[in-house]
């Protein structure tokens, strides 16, 4: 991933489903937006689960990203040791304003 040269990845998007943020509960959600890795943007729909508990929001997601989608090449010398598709796991605690 060349994390020294590209230490950050980002996702900017919006939740597709209608969620009542005033009501506690667990929701299956999808977010549509732009995933940026290695400076390369890709539009994605990412599935996840969101739990609302008072002022706290807990979001979890796990999804795969093909390296080729972000122009990431694997050097031939280590090609057999590095996966062509990476697993991304998100586990975030958010606070309502």
Question: What's a concise summary of this model?
Answer:
The chain is mainly β and 97 residues long. The protein has strands at residues 10-15, 25-37, 40-53, 56-66, 85-95.
> Which CATH C-level class is it?
Mainly Beta
Please report the number of helical segments. 0
Which structural category fits the helices and strands? mainly beta
Assign a percent range to the helix content: under 10%
* SSE sequence, one letter per element: EEEEE
Point out poorly predicted stretches: none
Give structural notes.
It is built from no helices and 5 strands. The protein is mainly beta and 97 residues long. It has a single domain (10-95), classed as Lipid/polyisoprenoid-binding, YceI-like (Lipocalin), CATH 2.40.128.110. Strands 1-2-3-4-5 form a 5-stranded antiparallel β-sheet, with no helix packed on it. The model has no long low-confidence stretch (mean pLDDT 88).
Topology:
Layout: E1 10-15, E2 25-37, E3 40-53, E4 56-66, E5 85-95
Antiparallel strand pairs: 1-2, 2-3, 3-4, 4-5
Characteristics:
single chain, 97 residues, mainly beta, Lipocalin, five-stranded antiparallel beta sheet, 5 strands, elongated
